[in-house]
Specification:
Elements lengths: L28 E5 L6 E5 L3 H4 L5 E5 L1 E3 L3 E5 L5 E9 L4 E8 L8 E5 L6 E11 L2 E6 L4 H8 L16 H4 L7 E4 L11 H10 L2 E7 L22 E5 L1 H12 L4 E4 L1 H9 L9 E5 L14 E5 L6 H9 L2 H13 L10 E4 L1
Parallel strand pairs: 1-17, 3-12, 3-14, 4-11, 14-16
Antiparallel strand pairs: 1-2, 5-6, 5-8, 6-7, 7-10, 8-9, 9-10, 12-13, 13-15, 16-17
Helix pairs in contact: 7-8
Length: about 350
Amino acid sequence: MSTYKSDYYFDLPEHLIAQHPLPDRSASRLLCLDRNSGAVNHAQFTDLLELVRPNDLLVFNNTKVIPARMYGQKPTGGQLEILVERIVSSQQALVHMRSSRSPKPGSMVEIFSKDRSGVAGEVSVLGREGALFLVEARDEAITALIERCGHMPLPPYIERAEEQADLERYQTVYAKKEGAVAAPTAGLHFTPEILRALKDKGVEFAEVTLHVGAGTFQPVKEDDIRAHTMHTEWFEVADEVVKLVEETKQRGGRVIAVGTTSVRSLESASLNGRLQSMRGDTEIFIYPGYEFKTVDALITNFHLPESTLIMLVSALADRESVLAAYDEAVRHEYRFFSYGDAMFIA
C-alpha cells in the first residue's frame, strides 16, 4: 500500500487543463479502465450507453452549486473575496475570506453587487472557526444575499473570469438541492437524452446528496497521507437508495457511482459494513487499502496530482493501473479536471 503523497504524482502539461466546457456536454472522451486487469480503452462519453448494463444502478449526486463567491470591502476600505463553505442557518454561513488582513470579529463587511458597481448588502463577522469565518447577513436571508451578489465559484485551476455560460454548464442537468460550492463534475457530461436512453435500456437510477465544499481542492500537505485531515462535507443517503442498492446487488447488477462525491456518500453510509440510510457530516478519506462495501464501479473526471481524489480512485483500481491510465490520457491529450474528459472504472 502506497501511503506517500509523492506516490500519487504525475506530470500534467498545463495546456491539458480544460478552461472551458465543450459546446456539447456529452462530446467528452471517455477513458475506460478495467480495475482488475488494468487494461485501458479509449471511447466517447456517449459509448457509456453500451458500457452500462441493464440492471446496473447509477448513483448520482443531486447537489446544486450556489453562486458562492462574493466580493466586498472591509470598514477600512480594503477589498476582500468571500467563498461560502457552508450555510449554517437562515442568516449565517461559514466562509473563507481572502484579503490582505483578516477582518476582526464584530466588524461589518460590505458586499458588492454582481457587477461590482456598488454595495448591495452587508454581513457581520461573528467570529472564527479554524480557517473559516462565521458571518451573518444583515436584515435578510443569507441565501438571498448570495443569490443577489454571488458568482459561480469556478475552481482555482480555471484561470479566467466567470462567464454567462458557466451558470448552466458548471451545474448538472439533474441538480436539485442547493448547497454545493463546487460541482460534482462527473455528472456534467450527462444530458437529458443520455439519461433517457439509459432508462430505456433498463438501467436504474438513484440519487444521493453531498454538498461539495471548497475543501475538495485542499492539498495534501503531509508526506504520509495517513496524517492528512480530511475536510468535512454534509451528505444524505435516503431509505430509497438503500432499497435500490440492495435490489441491484440481489439481481447481480453493479452499483456505479457517478463521481467521487457519490462514492463518499455511499461508503460513508456503509462504514458499519452494510449500506444504511444516513445524513450528517462525513470526513471519510478513501485511499489504497480501503475495502469498498457498496460501490462496484465509478464514472469520474481526471483529478489533480497528489490529491485526495486520485487517492480515492487508486483505492478502487490499484495505484499503478490508475497512474498508467493517467499517463495514457496525457499522451492522448485528454482534457483534465472539472470541464475535462471522463473515466469509467469497472
